[in-house]
């Protein structure tokens, strides 16, 4: 392919110019000014049929914003066989002409092996005509000729068409050629298929190249394996690029170590990017540092949408300012989202502020309980990875908090069942048979009660004990298994998660758990 100088025009790249010019509005003719000696020579040669001179003259017209002049001379040059002019005409017509004309000129240039023209042609066919087969053909030609951009676009098209092998092949080609986005995507393809070694390999490859999202997702993956030291290193790598999730996770690690000052700095950093959860955690750390003024500031920033922060903010208004009316407002906001402690406080302050319990809908008909238990780091990491995997191509996905509630509920109910000495409860990972009799002492860590087959022992036991539908409990267990063991089933949809959350809340209600 001919070596080119390029000029970007309204997001397009034209061949043959060395500076940037914006083409805005409808093409209009322009009376040329006096010609420089070189221009006069170019004009004479172009009129005599010199295609290179015609191409360069088109470039000069483009730099002067003479769109019609540029088109005229590029057509002369392209018809004489100048590939760069054909490419530029494809871009010209894409912006100012018709799709058919743009396709025609791109085809003329692409037929000579021009990878830029082939990539633009494929994009045009896909975006304006919906011709996926034609687009794939030209993307493949460009990718085979070494276009990294075409290889990535082809990989994404293969994903859309359900061609997993093709997607991996072309992402691999683009990644080896330095496209860190495709390396990141290969990590997700591996994770979704249950191949965590592949996910780790590609995320590390991209992370070490400077891809912050890859560093963050690798840290989450390491966190699922309880490698906190390794996870912290990649969280720090992502945090250097101001990744808000990384700052939050670093704060959580510091908090678990008891390093309150570092935790607060990390949570504040994440909160300044808009994270409500980070604002709430910053408030909680301030409380532990006995800095109630700062705690109120951080709770207030997230109270409108975070039930726990609203509850904490209301509590501070009572304890620090005796502001019962203000507290009632925030207790009500939290109670309306199912925060049970806020519901209890609202019952207390209503009579003191002239209110009446009988007029509060959130107390007469309480909403589903809000999950207030701290998330286990491994569960939070699994939930985030599942959501990120589902949303990577724009698909709808539940919020991580909903998935954490599903995971946490199962473990909570399983522990409760064990502590009560209920029979036939499988425990501690994949098992072949039930555990008879009670278990002495507390049960720590996640309890894995899913067993292969139609119904696991835990599912059957819970259905028998609670009276809930066996299929509903089994569905809860299957969603949990998908989150913990990627590749066993498609990621749950938001509607599926909402349905399963109902079962989780019914189970907790039966055992009297919040």
Task: Write up this protein.
This is Sel1 repeat family protein. With 514 residues, the protein is mainly α. The chain has 26 helices and 2 strands. Strands 1-2 form a two-stranded antiparallel ribbon. Helix 22 (377-391) runs antiparallel to helix 23 (400-419). The chain is elongated, with a radius of gyration of 31 Å. Residues 1-13, 16-34 and 424-455 have low confidence and may be disordered.
What class would the helix/strand composition place it in? Answer: mainly alpha
How far is the N terminus from the C terminus?
67 Å
The total beta strand count reads: 2
The largest sheet is:
2 strands, antiparallel
Strand order of the largest sheet: 1-2
- Which stretches are low in confidence, meaning pLDDT under 50 for 5 or more residues running? 1-13, 16-34, 424-455
SSE ordering: EEHHHHHHHHHHHHHHHHHHHHHHHHHH
Overall 3D shape:
elongated
Mean pLDDT: 86
Helix content: 55-70%
The proportion of strand residues reads: under 5%
Q: What's the alpha carbon Rg, rounded to whole Å?
A: 31 Å
Protein name: Sel1 repeat family protein
Pfam families: Sel1
InterPro entries: Sel1-like (IPR006597), Sel1_AlgK (IPR050767), TPR-like_helical_dom_sf (IPR011990)
């Amino acid at each position: 392919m001919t070596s080119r100088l390029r000029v970007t025009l309204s997001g397009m790249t034209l061949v043959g110019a060395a500076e940037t010019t914006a083409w805005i509005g409808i093409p209009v003719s322009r009376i040329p000014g006096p010609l420089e000696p070189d221009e006069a020579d170019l004009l004479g040669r172009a009129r005599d049929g010199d295609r290179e001179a015609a191409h360069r003259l088109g470039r000069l017209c483009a730099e002067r914003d003479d769109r019609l002049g540029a088109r005229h001379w590029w057509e002369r040059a392209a018809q004489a066989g100048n590939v760069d002019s054909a490419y530029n005409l494809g871009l010209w017509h894409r912006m100012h002409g018709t799709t058919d004309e743009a396709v025609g000129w791109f085809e003329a240039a692409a037929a000579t092996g021009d990878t830029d023209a082939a990539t633009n042609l494929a994009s045009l066919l896909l975006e304006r005509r919906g011709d996926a087969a034609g687009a794939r053909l030209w993307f493949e030609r460009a990718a085979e000729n070494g276009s990294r951009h075409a290889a990535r676009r082809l990989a994404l098209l293969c994903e859309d068409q359900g061609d997993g092998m093709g997607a991996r092949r072309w992402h691999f080609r683009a990644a080896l050629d330095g496209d860190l986005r495709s390396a990141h995507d290969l990590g997700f393809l591996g994770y979704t298929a249950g191949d965590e070694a592949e996910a780790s390999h590609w995320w590390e490859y991209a992370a070490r190249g400077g891809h912050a999202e890859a560093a963050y997702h690798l840290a989450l993956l390491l966190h699922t394996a309880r490698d906190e030291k390794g996870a912290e290193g990649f969280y720090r790598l992502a945090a250097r690029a101001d990744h808000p999730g990384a700052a939050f996770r670093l704060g959580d690690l510091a908090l678990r170590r008891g390093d309150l000052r570092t935790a607060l700095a990390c949570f504040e950093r994440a909160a300044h990017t808009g994270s409500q959860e980070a604002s709430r955690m910053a408030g909680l750390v301030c409380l532990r540092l006995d800095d109630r003024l700062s705690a109120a500031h951080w709770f207030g920033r997230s109270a409108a949408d975070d039930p726990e922060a609203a509850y904490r903010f209301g509590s501070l208004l009572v304890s620090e300012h005796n502001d019962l009316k203000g507290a009632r407002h925030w207790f009500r906001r939290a109670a309306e989202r199912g925060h049970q402690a806020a519901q209890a406080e609202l019952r207390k302050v209503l009579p003191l502020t002239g209110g009446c319990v009988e007029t509060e809908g959130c107390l007469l008909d309480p909403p589903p309980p809000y999950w207030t238990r701290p998330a286990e780091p491994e569960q939070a990491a699994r939930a985030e990875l599942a959501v990120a995997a589902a949303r990577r191509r724009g698909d709808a996905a539940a919020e991580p908090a909903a998935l954490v509630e599903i995971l946490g509920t199962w473990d909570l109910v399983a522990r409760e069942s064990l502590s009560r000495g209920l029979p036939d409860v499988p425990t501690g990972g994949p098992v072949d048979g039930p555990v008879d009799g009670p278990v002495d002492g507390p049960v720590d860590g996640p309890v894995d009660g899913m067993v292969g087959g139609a119904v696991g022992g835990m599912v059957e036991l819970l259905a028998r004990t609670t009276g809930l539908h066996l299929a509903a409990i089994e569905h809860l267990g299957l969603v949990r298994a998908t989150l913990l063991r990627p590749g066993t089933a498609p990621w749950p949809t938001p509607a599926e998660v909402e349905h399963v959350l109902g079962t989780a809340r019914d189970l907790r209600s039966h055992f009297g758990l919040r």
